[in-house]
Each structure stands twice: as structure tokens, then as C-alpha cells.
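Input.
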Amino acid sequence: QVQLQESGPGLVKPSQTLSLTCTISGASVTTNYYYWSWIRQPPGKDMEWMGAISYSGSTYFSPSFKARTSISRDTSKNQFTLELASVTPEDTAVYFCVGQPGPHRLEGPRNGGSWEDWYDWWGQGTQVTVAS
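Output.
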């Protein structure tokens, strides 16, 4: 059974870099053909796919976040990490790490589709507030 757990600060100041880590159990960050993503849900808004890292270490980003986002991994700790630079209050959201056993539409379902059904594994989500 694959389980994911997010960790990181709940409060970040504007202009700082947000860093969140997802710890995987029940699978490896390097398991063949598995993909690991970060998504978020701002208050009152839809889910947003931010980016992903593959089993081989390749990264993929939403154009909306590419300029200020990086995703890396630590194979010794079986973790992958999101860094979002130059945050503003608009980055306040619940952040989730998710995983899937294949590269089908990393960016999530088409309009109207169920995000909960799209990814196979979910962390419980972590609230991040950007405020001074």
C-alpha cells in the first residue's frame, strides 16, 4: 500500500521560497514508470497541477508555475520536494503530493473530471498560508 505524507511550514512570508517535502512509503521514488506530482487548491478555487517528477528524475511543469517552481528528489530518503519561489498571498492553498503508476495526463483530469479519481495515491494535504 502506497502512502504519501507532506511536510513543511504552514506559514511563509511573501517573497520567500516555499519548500514542501513528500515522503513515500510502500513504493520507491525510483519505481519504474511511477510519477509523483504536486497539486494545490487555493481557497474557493479548483485544483491546480503544478509539476511532477518521474521515476527517472525527469521533471515536468505547468506553464503557470514553471518560472518559479522546482521539483527534486532524495532517493536515500525516498522523498520528493517542491520549491516555489517568490510566493505571494495568492499562493495560499492546500498543497497535496500525489502519485500515479504511469504518465497518463500528469496534469490531471480534463474539465469536469474527478481529481480524486485521477491519481492513485494522495497525501493528506498540508495548508500553506502566505502572509507577513
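The helical segments are 115-118.
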